[in-house]
Design brief:
- Strand 3 and strand 4 form a beta hairpin.
- This protein is an alpha/beta fold.
- About 25% of the residues are buried.
- About 45% of the residues lie in helices and about 30% in strands.
- The strands form two sheets. Strands 5-2-1-6-7 form a five-stranded parallel beta sheet, with helices on both faces. It has a two-stranded antiparallel ribbon with strand order 3-4.
Length: about 140
């Protein structure tokens, strides 16, 4: 079976991205390997005493993200597409590429938000980074307005 890596960030366009990935998975008889990469600095806050770490904030955020990830997983399974999911913390590009290798993926499916130019200079683009460094094809779905 073809493994398709589907990174999600729970943004407003996640549903469109999932719909496109499900359609693609059905066309190629693929399995979706759903992944969310949480940042490593979730529990940190800055205040009067400088940076402080609050593990309970991180735990709550991770728990909420796992609930969201599970809902997407169930939604995909309900459409008769095989799916598994994982949440990891770290640098998104590196984690997604490692997961792609681990799963012997055939594709990575990403969304394009239609941003370009100066935005990429200052913020960077995960999709751009993945297309540059991935060993497998990256299918970029247009999910902008």
């Amino acid at each position: 079976m073809i493994n398709i890596i589907l990174p999600v960030d729970f943004g407003e366009k996640t549903d469109q991205l999932v719909d496109g990935a499900v359609k693609f998975a059905k066309e190629v008889n693929g399995k979706i390997c759903l992944i969310h990469v949480a940042p490593t600095d979730i529990g940190f806050a800055i205040g009067d005493m400088g940076y402080q770490y609050f593990p309970e904030i991180e735990e709550n955020e991770i728990r909420e993200e796992l609930v969201l990830l599970n809902k997407i997983n169930q939604r995909i399974l309900a459409q008769d597409v095989e799916c598994e999911h994982i949440l990891k913390q770290g640098i998104a590009k590196d984690i997604i590429l490692e997961y792609s290798d681990l799963k012997s993926a055939s594709y990575i499916v990403m969304g394009s938000h239609g941003r370009s130019g100066i935005y990429d200079v200052f913020v960077g683009s995960l999709t751009k980074g993945l297309t540059k460094d991935s060993k497998v094809p990256v299918l970029v779905l247009p999910i902008h307005e």
